[in-house]
Amino acid sequence: MKTVAIVGASLAGARAAQELRAQGFDGRVVLIGEEPHLPYDRPPLSKSFLAGTASRESLDLVDADDLASLELRLGTRAERLDPSTGRVVLSDGELEADGVVLATGGRARALPGAESVAGVHVLRTLDDALALREELVPGARAVIVGGGFIGAEVASTANALGLDVTVLEALPTPMVRVLGPELGGICARLHGRNGVTLRCGAGVAGLSAAAGRVTGVQLETGENLPAEVVVAGIGMVPAVEWLEGSGLAIGNGVRTDAGLVTSLPNVVAAGDVAAYGPAGTRHEHWTNATEQASVAVANLLAGQVVREYEPSGYVWSDQYAGTLQLAGHPAPGDEVRFAEGGPDDESFLATYHRDGATVAVFGLNNPRGFGRLRRQALRRPMPVG
Ligand SMILES: Cc1cc2nc3c(=O)[nH]c(=O)nc-3n(C[C@H](O)[C@H](O)[C@H](O)COP(=O)(O)OP(=O)(O)OC[C@H]3O[C@@H](n4cnc5c(N)ncnc54)[C@H](O)[C@@H]3O)c2cc1C
User: pTM for this one?
Assistant: First the structure.
């Protein structure tokens, strides 16, 4: 293999480039990214970078050595892939590659009708974070639509910056799909304890605006919540549109086998865009993107599946001066047991149980205890959830 093209110059893409070198590939590596920025880390965009306490440089995912060992094509969009020839059609030319890593992640889902209304934001990119940061001024009223990880983190940052924050969650409990009702309920209480209003079961009917600027969020009940800033934290859509016609299987992401290899052995996928295994499982977490890049590259270089992906299921989130950590794969119906502390404490550890086995570990504000419990309780690889 002489040339590997990596499409998507963010976490999975940057890690894939580093893994190619670490795993002995000495050919040409071309990293293609449509954003104009050097690869950067996204988690701080809703936390320290949004709060203005982290610099742009602290987000860098590649160093000078990495840059010296690859060809970086920034501000370049991949528009088409012909997997049989390895030809990638770019917005500014074409590239022939023997191997391709698909690492295009996804795009933030926007609120319907928000396109031309100032003051309404999504948060996925560095530019999104810069635009939002401008508007997080003390005393302003912010409505966050979506009580998932990103919504909760933006709420927490905006609250710390002195805004009056309301979070709207469509489900009865925030993060119920990831954490289940019991621990999701505890996350809900974090908002209240910190002076943020959480409204669950709240359906959004639309936005109200005057002179092209948002003035509030209309609920399905007819109520209007006044707001100077609105942030949609309502998930993302995998960036696969450019692969239409490529012949690759697409469905909630790029479909791959258990080794992250697509229907063609010279095309692999990693990160938020990869839908792997028979169930097409897709994760949207930092650790997953890093772990998958390593497995995808190993299988690409081998020309066959020599490693299957076994997710650790590790996720963290920083909210209100605290850290939430989860490892493993909780599912609806799991029994939750508190291993240290309890649901009303500022810090606790809990485990999830199913069919007599511990399937996940959760910690609030106890990173050391979490690490210990995780090692003890999750010795065996977790089932893919
Ligand atoms: C605000 C925020 C906070 C987060 N916080 C946490 C956290 O606390 N903990 C955690 O575990 N995870 C967190 N995550 C999730 C984590 O950052 C993602 O899982 C990770 O960024 C996925 O990396 P990726 O490379 O797969 O995709 P992405 O980061 O989405 O990168 C994909 C890149 O591909 C580019 N691209 C797309 N299409 C094309 C194309 N056709 N041609 C060229 N380039 C293209 C995109 O512009 C983008 O730069 C957070 C995410 C966000 C947005």
Answer: 0.96
